[in-house]
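User: My advisor, Dr. K., asked me to get a structural model of this assembly before our group meeting. I'm new to this, so sorry if the format is off. These are the inputs:
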Amino acid sequence: MECKDIQKRHSAYIEKAVSPQEKAAIDAHLKQCKGCRQALADLKRTIEYVQKLEEVEPPRWLAQKVIARVRAEAEEKPGIVKRLFYPIHIKLPLEAIAVIFIAVGAIYILKTMQPQMQLAKIPTETKEMAPAPAPKKEAPAALSKKEPTAATAGDQLMYEKRMETQAERSMGKAKAPAAMAEQERTAPAAGTAYRDEPDHRGLLAPQAVSPKAAAKGKAKEVHFLVHVADLDTASRDIAETLRQLGGRAITTEPLKNRAVIDAEINVNKLQELTDQLHLIGDVQEKGSADKAAEGDVAVTIDVLKMQESR
Amino acid sequence: MKGKTQTRDDDLEYVSLCRKGDVAAFEALVRRHEKRMFNIAYRVIGHYDEACEVVQDAFISAYKNIKGFKGEAKFSTWLYAICINLSRNRLRQLKTRRYREGRSLDDPIMTPDGEIAADPPSGEPSALDRLETRDVQQKVQLCINTLDAEFREVIVLRDIQGFSYEEISAMLKVPEGTVKSRLFRAREAMRACLQDFMGDR
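Assistant: The format is fine. Below is the predicted structure of the whole assembly, which you can bring to the meeting.
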């Protein structure tokens, strides 16, 4: 073995961490090699020096500082615990307040939505007000009881009446003259009923809110009966006329021997419309609009095929 | 080592008290291990003030993570392992700092006066003994400082602190064989270093 290799094993040799064979080889080498003996002695001495290194005293403040920092840390701990649990004290009232807010908000939204939903129905209902005067007489009576429910009750009645009129209409040709006669008879009544209505509401339900007023506005309605020879052409002409007059929401409902045209037009155009209708056929006007009124009026034009017998 | 099993039992008692939030129990552990912690850190880092910082941080870290001590090894082994780790990290920081500041690694390390006992009993005179005792202490530390961290650690833990290979292996989380081979290389390097010092004279 070379001296280098031997010296590499010296530390293990000192630690007695070499195999017996290796130890024997190193011992044999050391006996004859002065340099390696010296190196081994130096290594032993080195280890001794290292082992003899004095313990160094830490400064006195070290332990104190450590303890102070640990105490600060320990005091923070309940802080952490508090941070976790403290919010619960706040959370409960917060949650309660949140629930109340949500509940109040929901009720408020429902309350504001409801009139709008009723309002949405009203135009179709009011359209039928004229041919259905009877419930008008009942509705104010019902209104006097309790405003909101009475209103819906009134609406309900109108709705039912509407179904009736619809059925009446669909009865068709055979009953047409009778129906017509009836309509003619009821027309003035409808007019009065219609005119009465705002007063009733105003008197009986002064708390009636804007949706009702809006309904009133929508209730401005003019109903024409137009007797024509050629139903299809007349219907188209009337629809075209309405369009030219700036009419909106023009709907034509073609029935047998009959057509119902609904539209909304500016009240100022109403006279012009009447003139035009006179050119198309034999016109009867029902439920005239308030001339002083502004804005749009709902126009319903019943186009009837002229009877041969007439 | 004498009384080690006893210390172990004492430590565990304090440790369990500590886990229940007893700060005083941890204070007892600090007082018990402070000196050894400091000596490990000081010998590894070779800088007194830095060692103070590291020891503080190591104790705080141990306190925060005391629940992470599973009792697989002795509490002291776990504690010293934290100290060794933080020392190693600090050493790395210091080296990069020194590198940035353009200082030489050979610059003498400040050793505060009075901290090293002046008069240890000297062995029989030899070539290396020509160094004065106090010089020896300084030279040995300087030589340790020339070693890489992994060699410093083993020489500090084995030859200075006298831990068993098993304990060192647990602290450094390396196999015993690795500890030994590192130790032997470290000692050889120390010998060469001390001989150089001697040769300078």
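One thing worth pointing out at the meeting: Residues 220-310 of chain A form one domain.

User: Perfect, thanks a lot.
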